[in-house]
Amino acid sequence: MSATPIHRAPDTPAARQALALAGVFQAASLVDELARTGQVDARAWETLINATVDTNPESFEAIYGGHPNNLRRGLDTLEALVGRKQANPVVLRYGFSLLLLMNKLRTDRQMMDVLGQKLTHVQGQAEHFGTTHENVIASLGETYQETISTFKTRIVVQGDPSLLQTRMMPERVRACLMAGIRFALLWHQQGGRRWKLVFQRKALRRALDNFS
Fold first, then answer.
1. Quick check: pTM over 0.70?
2. Distance between CA atoms of 202 and 196, rounded to whole angstroms?
3. What InterPro entries does its record include (predicted)?
4. At CA 145, angle to CA 160 and CA 108, rounded to 5?
5. CA–CA dist 120, 130 (Å, integer)
6. Rounded to 5, what percent of the chain is helix, strand, coil?
7. Chain segment 77-118, per-residue pLDDT in tens
8. In angstroms, rounded to a whole number, what is the distance separating the alpha carbons of residues 21 and 192?
9. How many CB atoms lie within 10 A of CB 172?
């Protein structure tokens, strides 16, 4: 089976910020879907987990698998955010909470170092078991719980209580949240800022047109 061709991301800050932000909201969307139904879209899920495990991607495009449609769930959520479609308020709340937590994380150098060490360990597991193996997902969930979850600000996930208590569900939800943090950091690295979501919506809309 041949590899999926790499589609080069537009070399503009707004387009790259849009793709990174799509990763954040894709994670938020999958958290909501897991909590309500216990199921997720396989392509969207694998894109998030692969991006989180690969701590040293060869290119920007490699982070999300080389094709913007791998982030389609997140791109659709961004379309709603800029006013073109109806937005899911729960998904938006999760997404903006992830951005807030990312800002807390990036100013905590000690936690950033710990997070890096833990993700290196997870990467070793992924090389042995495969990226989406439950041992890897469990480790990603544990990494989130031992780092991001220790902040006073936390994401309270709403959903079906019986589903949220099933085997591996807490780990899967936390793995998604960890992926959201990974893309939130990428968004910040590409120049993304909260104020731009308010004052530069037209630029974001134009960027999204590249991926429609």
1. yes
2. 10
3. HflD, HflD-like_sf
4. 135
5. 14
6. 70, 0, 30
7. 999 988 767 889 999 999 999 999 999 999 999 999 999 999
8. 8
9. 24
